[in-house]
């Protein structure tokens, strides 16, 4: 599996054009909001957003810019989960979930030091992920993913609780987003 496979999965899951009245993101196509499209140079009708444009935006904004390819060198499943969460919640939130989970899994800094939850993927976060994997091995990915997905699920429920209109999306978020990152 590679990043193109992740992009293809997200586009298939997101579907085509939508402009749901309860969605604060407004008009979207293939999961790309009009605001993201406009901020990145696409000014045509959202219904006509080219697939190639959506793919390029996913690759650049949710894989390359946040640095998830560096995570993929250490753990493909964790990188895939970061990408998938970033698409829906933004790279800072996805990266913050990774940092929080790594801190919570270090047994009060007995295994490796805490890192600052700055929501940016940098050398320290990668070093801690490397230390976690050296200690726990590839099977540790399963536990790390569960921790990240628990944080993601909690965020979805909080969004629904804070804005009742979001309840229209909660079932789909939980059904289609939790555990949807690639596991191979």
UniProtKB/TrEMBL annotation:
<dbReference type="InterPro" id="IPR008565">
    <property type="entry name" value="TtsA-like_GH18_dom"/>
</dbReference>
<feature type="domain" description="Peptidoglycan binding">
    <location>
        <begin position="96"/>
        <end position="177"/>
    </location>
</feature>
<feature type="domain" description="TtsA-like Glycoside hydrolase family 108">
    <location>
        <begin position="8"/>
        <end position="90"/>
    </location>
</feature>
<dbReference type="Pfam" id="PF09374">
    <property type="entry name" value="PG_binding_3"/>
</dbReference>
<protein>
    <submittedName>
        <fullName>Uncharacterized protein</fullName>
    </submittedName>
</protein>
<dbReference type="InterPro" id="IPR023346">
    <property type="entry name" value="Lysozyme-like_dom_sf"/>
</dbReference>
<dbReference type="InterPro" id="IPR018537">
    <property type="entry name" value="Peptidoglycan-bd_3"/>
</dbReference>
<dbReference type="Pfam" id="PF05838">
    <property type="entry name" value="Glyco_hydro_108"/>
</dbReference>
